[in-house]
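Researcher: Batch entry, complex prediction.
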Amino acid sequence: MNILAIETSCDETAAAVVEIDRTSHNIKILSNVVASQVEIHKKFGGIFPEYASRAHCEKIIPVVEEALSEVHATQSKSRRRGAWFKPSRALRTDFLAGKIESGIFDVAAPSDIDLIAVTTGPGLIGSLLVGINFAKTYAYANNLPILGINHLTGHIYSNFITPSLPHFSALILIVSGGHTGLVLMKSHDKIIPLGETLDDAAGEAFDKVAKLLELGYPGGPAISKAAENGNSKAYDFPRSMLDRKDFDFSFSGLKTAVLYESKKHKLTDKIKTNMAASFQQTVCDILVGKTIQAAYEYHPKSICLCGGVSANKELRQQLKKAVAGLPWKTSYFVPPMTLTTDNAAMIGVAAAYHLDEKTTWQNINAEANLKL
Ligand code: KG4
Ligand code: ZN
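Model: Structure tokens for the complex:
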């Protein structure tokens, strides 16, 4: 069976088709299309929610079309049954009808799409609503079941691409622009939050520090690039919360420390790269330190890293080394680079493991502060 997955929780408009083999239950990503809004938000140095919603409105249809056509372009004509090209009668009176008539969008789902999955939260409400309303309309028009997925669950499942799968219990470090936390996954239906950030998320700290060091946007990739030429021991920034026994995080003190230090200097390239490297190392020490503390407490069989900040090469490597140093056998998982930052394939994979939660379009709603 095939799942059409949609993700618009923040500033990426994304659609993907994920296939589940009916006999082996293997999961395969058939297409994964992401339209980034980086160019739109660059001039503001951060995400401008109203512009994000508008860009989702413009991009959602072309992105879904591309995700579907990437799959069908590779399949033989005989598999493309008539419905693919025929507008559904149900939607002819809907607002999409104009687009159907003008040939912009064909509302009939390909006949091999069996389920719609969509991110329902957490995220920016205006952004979420675009993807959700599209998904509901598409499910209604095609009489398809729909499954709402928590965005953070999606990030977790970026590590669940067959054949190599994490074993339970799995300790998972989620590090994104809007969220930072540790969870213990005991089964597909039992995810226990262990701790989270009390203020800024790790990705948010990368973005804010990049802005104050004038390194550009988005901050994560900008900091990690600058850090390649810097000395990570040049500045000793505070590694907050590491002395505490709980599994919460805090990054706002670190951001303020970088701000005060940056004000003491003329920001030459050398100072910027040294500060970027020292900041990145501090974040890695905090994230790796807390994850290893939690590992000693819960003795997981697997440790997984996920979320946009999992694109950071230093973090990927340093956590890998720390996991390898544990005195019991623990497997380590990081998502492929294409599944680190926001995408719809991870939403489709999460849906593939929760098929029994499918429902009808009337039961799907946006929830900006949805919890795991
Ligand atoms: O998961 P994500 O795409 O969106 C949210 O769910 O928030 O994460 C985006 C975050 C941004 O803050 C971005 O700066 C950060 O991921 N990021 C990185 C890197 N690439 C993206 N942070 C550190 N190093 C990177 N290479
Ligand atoms: Zn995300």
